[in-house]
Amino acid sequence: MKQDTWLSRTIAVAVASGLRVVIAIQDKAAPFGDDSAQFTVFLWLVSSGLLGFVMPRRPWLWAVSIGPWLPLMYLTLQVLGWHAPINPNTYTTSLILIPVSLIVCAVGAYGGALARGILLPPSRSAEAFPGPGT
Q1: Which pick of 8, 88, 91, 103 has the fewest CB atoms within 10 Å?
Q2: Do 105 and 125 contact (CB within 8 A), yes or no?
Q3: Distance CA 50, CA 8 (A)
């Protein structure tokens, strides 16, 4: 693996970690009252879509890096006996949210990767199509 690829992927995973923390803080704060859940889904879509657009080679990585961590935080809070800001506050709700968040983030990441392929198609270099002299 090239050094640039490793470094850029490491930076992107760090950015994904920061985004999931921001999403968790926003969801815990609930600035929009009952509409905060819709805003959380919007943030999942936008953040995973942005990472899918920037690094389209592995969109599944961005879905896994962003999606399941908020529901896992809820589940951890419930196991520890602390209040989780989710209604209804049950284990089943948290467990159902894990695949939902993965699906939402996968749609965003693959949509971002698709948009990148449409807007910025890969360039065809001369090495990819060797001439008759090679």
Answers
A1: 88
A2: no
A3: 15
